[in-house]
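W.,

You were right to be curious about this one. When I first looked at the sequence I had no strong expectations either way, so I just let the prediction run and decided to look at it fresh. Below is the sequence, 99 residues in total, followed by the output.
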Amino acid sequence: MNRALQKAGISKAEIQYWCIHPGGKRILDAIAKSLDFKGTELEQSFAVLKENGNMSSPTVLFVLKKIMESMETGKHANIFGAAFGPGLTMETFIASTHA
């Protein structure tokens, strides 16, 4: 995560939405702990996990859809995304909306 943020030239504090692949409750809890989240940062990930379970690769796209539905139209926002695959694979993305 730090490398992706550094490459994008933004800090963790500048991320408004966290689009994290909900591979399971324990995974989301571990991510929340490691990133020192204190509130609702992973709300959409937990909601998708509860509603649909882990659907493998496309699950993170369901989280992104939920985030986009909750965003305020016309406001700038940064979204950090992370998806996990078999073994130790992880892909990240950073997306920005413009006002």
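Here's what jumped out at me. The first strand starts at residue 17 and ends at 20. And, maybe more interesting for your project: The domain at 14-97 is CATH 3.40.47.10 (Peroxisomal Thiolase; Chain A, domain 1).

Coffee later to discuss?

I.
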